[in-house]
Amino acid sequence: MCIKRLIQLLLFITPFSLAAQDTPSLEQMWQLIQQQQATIEKLQAQIQGNSQVVEQQSQAIEIISDNIDGSTNQSQSKYKFGGYGEVHYGNTDKGNSIDAHRFVLFNGYDFTDKTRFYSELEVEHALSGDGLPGEVELEQAFIEHRVNDKTTVTTGISLLPIGIINQTHEPTTFYGVERNNVEKNIIPTTWWAAGLGLSQRLNEMFAYDIFISEGLNVALAGSDVFLIRKGRQGTAKAKANKGAITSRLRFSPNNHLQINASMMYQQDITQGVLGVDATLFETNVHYNINNFSLKALYARWGLNKKVRAIAAGREQQSGFYLEPSYRFGSNNQYGVFSRYSQWDNNAGDDNNTEISQFDFGYNYWLTPQVVFKADYQDQSGAKDDDGFHLGMGYSF
Amino acid sequence: MRTSFLAWTLPIIFFCQHAHANDIKDFLSKQFTQIPKVQRIWLDKEKQNYIKTAFNPSQIKLSYRYWQKDNKTVWVLDEVGKERNITTGIIITDHTIKSVEVIAYRESRGGQVQSSRFISQYSDKTRNSNHLAKEIDSISGATLSVNALNKQVSLALYLNSLIP
């Protein structure tokens, strides 16, 4: 026991006694501490400097990354470019044809976030000129100013706020290869005019549009007499003795239902020659639940009684259609539809001039912006043109 | 007739002078009592490819900014409706959508997506939700804007899952 203690004591003392020979003096130790302190301070400064550099560099990386992201973001460009088009094959009693029906280019420029220019230039039926079937049309060219989140004013050539497909008519947005005959012959779509427009969302349910524009100038004789479709002036040196005002109320009571109603008043569709005023009433409903959709539209023109003496039938021109449809597939890429339409451009007299048409067919969206279509039509009444159509369309 | 036409133009001039802007900072101060420091999720090629296949947004960025405090995360994302960016704020708690707000709407048509009636449909959606496009009722005449919002919400939920 005693020996063990002694050994422990020796072990404890020995290192000190050995080290004691090399122990620096207090002065030496003080110098050593000062040197170490200086090194610590130097290192601290370096670390601080480094972390500033790291901070600056990560900021630089973020700026570079934001810039790369910014330069690849085309929507930030002031120049806007887009288009749509459709090619149709028709095989009906009228004959067979392949037609590059529409090729459209959109061009726009954002002057500021709120003030923009927008245009739509269209080539219809591929070739235009004397004796050729097609036309080059300036369908839209207007300045739009967004006053606030809810209010927009426009001036220039715009599409009139009437019907379902007049303003939104990219082939990817509707069923059937050709546009429906009711909107085509009665409203008549596509209808554009130069004027002043105001659109405003009032609340979650209500919105309205007002458009003051150039008026119609219809034929006063011949087979097109008082035919609204042939009276559109297309802002092509349009006669502006008399104008028109269009108003539309949009009502959406819930997420499934949209109801629109438009009224148009034409001061004189003969531009001062006969003094024939005219009124269009149009209403449409779009009901959408799950993958089922129902569209319905009714439109009616009433012309001044003076028309009776010249072409009684044309005093009233009206039509309607009902279009149920259903979408399915993993990405809702398939859609089937049917449509029943009735229209009459000579509804003002007792003659039987009404045309009805039953359509059915499908759309296949290869991508949401590329569509292939097929439909069959069965006409009856004053015309009988039956057959099928195939078509492809795109928009971007 | 001519004077009445001129009178029509007056309200338009009046309207044009009453513009106001709503920006991201305003939106963030509504979400946090004190706006936390902005953070970023950086994406490698693999994650970018996943985003492209899964959501096909108009643009895939190298990094996405977010603001986080406690278990609330706020993402601000841009997506093109027809031709202009819609800027949307997406608030996520516990990987579940708490709310969505359109901060800036720049498209000409389709503004109905800003309504709380439409946008409240996103509340409580998670990454497990099936195809958002099938669960959200679209708006007739605003299809492209609805598509854009579906993409934004899906992307925000995915990005949120990447936060370490």
What does this structure look like?
The complex is a heterodimer of chains A (396) and B (164). Chain A has 396 residues and is of the alpha+beta class. Chain A has a single domain, classed as Beta Barrel (Porin), CATH 2.40.160. Chain A has 4 helices and 16 strands. In chain A, strands 1-2-3-4-5-6-7-8-9-10-11-12-13-14-15-16 form a 16-stranded antiparallel barrel. The model of chain A has no long low-confidence stretch (mean pLDDT 92). Chain B is an alpha+beta fold and 164 residues long. Chain B has one domain (21-162). Chain B has 6 helices and 5 strands; from the N terminus they run ααβαββββααα. Chain B has helices at residues 2-16, 24-31, 45-55, 116-119, 132-135, 143-162, and strands at residues 38-42, 63-69, 72-80, 85-93, 96-104. In chain B, strands 1-2-3-4-5 form a 5-stranded antiparallel beta sheet, sandwiched between helices. In chain B, a hairpin with a 4-residue loop joins β3 and β4. Chain B is globular. Mean pLDDT of chain B is 85; it is low at 11-21. Chains A and B meet through α2, β2, β4, β5 and β6 of A and α1 and α4 of B.
- Write the CATH architecture name of chain A: Beta Barrel
Assigned CATH class of chain A:
Mainly Beta
What is the H/E order of chain B? HHEHEEEEHHH
Strand content of chain A: over 45%
Q: How many domain regions of chain A? A: 1
Following the backbone from N to C, one meets helices and strands of chain A in this order, namely HHEEEEEHEEEEEEHEEEEE
Span between N and C termini of chain A? Answer: 99 Å
Largest sheet: number of strands, sense, barrel closure of chain A: 16 strands, antiparallel, barrel
Strand arrangement, largest sheet of chain A? 1-2-3-4-5-6-7-8-9-10-11-12-13-14-15-16
How many domain units of chain B? 1
Q: By helix and strand content of chain A, what is the structural category?
A: alpha+beta
Can you tell me the CATH topology of chain A? Answer: Porin
Largest sheet of chain B: 5 strands, antiparallel
Give the low-pLDDT segments of chain B.
Answer: 11-21
Distance between termini of chain B? 69 Å
- The CATH homologous superfamily of chain A is named Porin
Shape of chain A: elongated
User: What Rg of chain B is obtained from the alpha carbons, in whole angstroms?
Assistant: 18 Å
Gyration radius from CA atoms of chain A, angstroms? 38 Å
Q: What fraction of the residues of chain B are assigned to beta strands by DSSP? A: 15-25%
Form type of chain B: globular
